Fold these 2 entries.
Entry 1:
Amino acid sequence: MEQRVFGGTGKEVPVLGQGTWQMEEDDRDEAIRSLRAGLDLGLTHVDTAELYGHGRVEESIVSEAIAGRRKEVFLVSKVMPSNATYAGTLTACERSLKRLRTDWLDCYLLHWPGSHPLAETVRAFEKLVADGKIRSWGVSNFAVADLDELLTLTKPERIACNQVLYHLEERAIEHAVLPWCEERGVAVVGYSPFGNGRFPKPSSPGGRVLDAIARAHDATPRQVALQFLVRRPSLFAIPKASRVAHLRDNAAAVSLKLTSEELARIDAAFPTGAYSDQLPVI
Ligand code: NAP
């Protein structure tokens, strides 16, 4: 699995990871099998959050999937903004560690900007780093204005990543957020790479482009999409797959090599849209 330096952490992390949102709605045993198959195939960046299933995804799915394999995993969780005071962040992290049955997180994110002072959350993150509870921290759903505020509180190399919505039909980050992060060495983790299950239909104009490129490589349209979404060195993607067959399909995307002409065809088929410094979220 191709690895890339993950922002200021200096750590190499696989370009494709595994999401876990809404896994509590799926067959639990199959979801665990899928996550473990992902680890076998090198998709060791596992993304979860206290929010997911109100803690159930951490507690009964991710903890089980990583049991006995903790050192292989780059484990990411997130604090909800409503908990992100100084004390609230520390206790939310303790709760996640307990549910995940681990002593540390590799990266801990603020799930989205909230109303508590960002300075408190950052201070808590640094305390958690100092105490060895988390190895790095980052943010999620931060627009440029939020990132600028963050930069008044910390150095860019302390911000491991910004996890943001990014799929073929939602490329708004390319206007401002992605360049901001690239200039400062902050990793950009694209979430919902398949539009949270709303992938372009094969009969749509864009779907036909993906299909034609996929056929030329004996690949699948989703593999083509994933390769496009990680085409720049700052980019990572975290597709969610509760089914082993889906997981294997996604993992195979790493061996696909798209030509610059194919990338240009995808770019034209899924336009970025008008400039906006707003950040769409799910
Ligand atoms: P997604 O990865 O865009 O799509 C997941 C859906 O696609 C599931 O229904 C999955 O089915 C299906 N799928 C996956 N691989 C497939 C394949 N090869 N063929 C056919 N179908 C396939 O959706 P997402 O869960 O919204 O995003 C991914 C992760 O990003 C989340 O799980 C979460 O960890 C993270 N996220 C973060 C935020 C945030 O605010 N920070 C927000 C949203 C998501 P099965 O599951 O049945 O296999």
Entry 2:
Amino acid sequence: MSLSDQVALVTGAARGIGRAIAETLAADGVEVVVADIDADEAELTAKAITAGGGRAFAAAHDVRDEQSSADVVARILERRGRLDILVNNAGVGPRPGPFHTLTADEYDRVMSINARGLFLTTKAATPPMIEQRSGRIIHISSVVAKRASPNILPYAASKWAVIGMTQTMARELAQYDVTVNAVCPGVIRTQLHEGVVEKMSTLYDKTEDDTWQMFYDRIALGRLQEPADIADMVAFLASAKARNITGSAFNVNGGMEFN
Ligand code: NAP
């Protein structure tokens, strides 16, 4: 099926990595649903994509709310009659600290969006894909899901959970020709990561410049990734070229982690 006949739902797509994913898929001809908890910002992003010649519309969507995911998918089916690609990108960053000092609320805040929210959105998006006997589901995990990550336990747990769900969903959906993969970004200078650096600088008593340098020092290629780097991998996984790939988690991290 040509990309220009396909419809993609991208969560957390108003800004950052999600916005780059929406722009890249739209540039490939896919009609993109720019879903985000910030409906106004999502509208602006969808308008910018449309102004650039792409096809997009915005949807208010809170991944924590099961009904919100059901409503977004229902709206897509009403409007376009199909859903081909789901990109679970919405996420929040950690408030760093030793795990024994963190509250249950902090654990729940992160897990409710990064793990539970991904489950709920995928649950809503899967039935039309099963019916179509085709679909591409792409989760955004993280480099922290492939190693021990001190002082960010809830975030690390949520991203390890994403890889677990990737493998399990891939097994369950293979019989319908629906593939499920994950992308594991390294470090991208988005609002999320600016917040992490600010809080880590306080925790480690470093300047923000020194904290950024700590990240650069861990990257073999010596440079941060751009949102477009993640978007290009997502576009590949959504394309026909990736038809025989499922249950995998791909690093896009400049050589921060080699598993
Ligand atoms: P970002 O700039 O903060 O963008 C995240 C987007 O998700 C925002 O538009 C945010 O809206 C939205 N969002 C937050 N809570 C939501 C909810 N409950 N329902 C729907 N949308 C919600 O973050 P990013 O850096 O682009 O991160 C995107 C994904 O990449 C996340 O899953 C993140 O964990 C992952 N990642 C990022 C990095 C990195 O270095 N940046 C590295 C590895 C993995 P509001 O701002 O209005 O809350």
